[in-house]
Amino acid sequence: MRSAARFVLLTLLSLALGAQALQAMKVGEAEKEALMDHIRYLADDAREGRGIGTPGLDSSAAYLADRFRHYGLQPLFDGDYYQRFDMAWGAEAQEGCYLAMSEDTLMLGADVLPSGFSGIGEVQAPILFAGYGIAAPEYEYDDYGEVDATGSIVLVLEGEPAEEVEGSLFAGTMTTDHSMLRTKAITAKNQGAVGVVVVTRDNTLPTLSTDEPYRDVGIPVLLATPSSLKALFPRLDFAKLRRSIDANESPRSMEAGDEPVTMSVQMTRNQVPVSNVGAKIEGSDEVVIIGAHYDHLGYGQMGSTEYGIHAIHNGADDNASGTAVLLELAHYFAEHPVGPTLWFVGFTGEEVGLVGSNWFVNHPAASLDNATFMLNIDMVGRTVDHKLTVYGVHSAKGLKEMAQAAGEGSPMTLTYTGGGYGASDQTSFYVKGIPVLHLLGALHEDYHTSRDDFDKINFDGLVEVLDYGVRLINEAAKPETKLEYQEKAPPSGGGGRSNITVSMGTIPDFSQPDSLRGLRIQGVRSGAPADEAGMTGMDVIVKMDDIIIDNIYDFTYALKQYKPGDVVKVTYLREGTEQITDLTLAASTRGRRGGGGGGHPGSDKKEGGHPGGGK
Ligand SMILES: [Zn+2]
Description:
- The protein is of the alpha+beta class.
- The protein folds into three domains: 4-89 and 272-485, Zn peptidases (Aminopeptidase, 3-Layer(aba) Sandwich), CATH 3.40.630; 95-265, 3-Layer(bba) Sandwich (Glucose Oxidase, domain 1), CATH 3.50.30.30; 502-589, Roll (Pdz3 Domain), CATH 2.30.42.
- The chain has 14 helices and 31 strands.
- Strands 1, 2, 15, 16, 17, 18, 19, 21 and 22 form a nine-stranded mixed beta sheet that branches. Strands 5-12-11-10-7-13 form a six-stranded mixed beta sheet. Strands 25, 26, 27, 28, 29 and 30 form a six-stranded antiparallel beta sheet that branches.
- Strand 16, helix 7 and strand 17 form a beta-alpha-beta unit.
- Helix 2 (29-42) crosses helix 11 and helix 7 (316-335) crosses helix 11.
- The longest helix is centred in the first third of the chain and has 22 residues, at 3-24.
- Bound molecules: zinc ion.
- Zinc ion binds next to helix 7.
- The site of zinc ion (ZN) has 7 residues, from helix 7.
């Protein structure tokens, strides 16, 4: 067939197929226009970044209520589209803020500062170092994976692993939600911690702003500088810890002190009126909930990565895009009702700690017992190459299959992953025993900045997201769809050092200068594996199999990966020359001699423990 004719035929074919695909799509051009209108309105400068306490947030709420009414949906809250409530706004630290361990105390002002969302009160508890304080299943990274924070105060580093490294695990140099202090505090709380001490990146403390929508996170949270913390934790080197985690992009969590620590926060807070906006389409008793947060960061409040620049954060992608899809799903199902009752909810206060969704699940429009599924839509406006993440499929049995069935015929490339806990409003519903999904597009450099604007939205992609949303709800509405909620497994393993079961017989040299990378050993125990392998004093261990040893914390971490009898390839430097040896690890003697924390000064404890050994 001549190329010209073949070309024409192929074009016609693809057009037909495209049209067919579009026909297969439940939505099209009309919805695209509507999505653009919603985002144009919500992300307009006049909405002032939909910050808490701004008139722009209130007019955005009115816009949602007006659209719901216009599409013919019933008010959700006893004849009202608004669920009004008051939330904390602004905070002032009072006398009585301190962090103490035995006779050393760090005071408010120079040494410590409470976070605006800190809980108020005093707690005394053991202290645990928990890395960056991040649990990120999507990155298979969990600072709490090998420690149990229940009943402890946790020390966590500001930021996220390798945040300045291109291509690094946590979205390279882009800041993810896991860096947010509030997310760290919530994660710590969910892990059972009773207090959080945030170690600032440098030796300056931020200022506590008086017009931030702080909401009590429920446990005390203090910020402290590395230099002031040195007085309490002389054996902890935070710069080394940060470097060690960053080098391997894996946790280094451990117990941080033998004495209990006392922390106290005293603070005053003001209140501001806010509201969730909700509507429903009545159906059977079964309820399917669709939600999206409509608030954002205003002029650059807490959560902005340009914190303090006072510029409108328009939040076109975060989350005018999800709110637009929420409105068009309501519009679609008003015209194409399904079996179950559908609730559509615009949440406020997501950026400041899931405030609106938390309020909603604790003051639901009606019992949540009939709720079978919750779909959350947050940041779907910047999809790339038709890719969409369907997050939360492991929150219930049958959910992944349902999501996959909905994906058949969709032009999107769908990734199914994650459990019920996440960095957005679905978490509030998951902890109430409801299966959840979160639709998430691509992360980008404009996240939580004043550059997240209308003109960067991928509207063709957004139509595909809307289409997939329609399919998901149709699948969820099928009588044969049965979802069985499943809980996330609790954290495994015991305390920091306690689960080192092996020994090499090396004695770390704690006088090692900071500039020296690796772990220098002072000597080896005679007859121990390291001795058998020919190692000796002043050798510098730089690698164990593929684990980079930057310092003692990498070494401690590495030892935990092995069991007695394992053969490990140790790379070390002797007078600067690289040597490699295989040695067979022995069983650690620590356990047999009455185990547990303190007490025995034998090399085993020293080997895996804190710099300078330990009493
Ligand atoms: Zn968001």
